[in-house]
Ig-like domain-containing protein (Caerostris extrusa), 83 residues
Amino acid sequence: MFLCTAPLIANMNHAKSSTLDTFNCNVTGYPVHAITWKNAHWPLQAECPKTYSTLRHHGMYQCFLYNDLDGGTAELKISDILK
């Protein structure tokens, strides 16, 4: 059996509307079995695995990528975006 994989790499971008912060976890690599989100190390539930939206406007947001062989992480801090 031949298994084709590529290292998982995550990067994140941010979009802001008047009331909503939206974070996108951009993924490269294969396969991606799971994407999870955290805010200040607390697990978050996302409607779409690659996107998380919130009314909160502070803190550190992270997305984590997983497969059987590898993992990747990206993070953004709201304070970094506002500078």
Summary: DSSP finds one helix and seven strands in the chain.
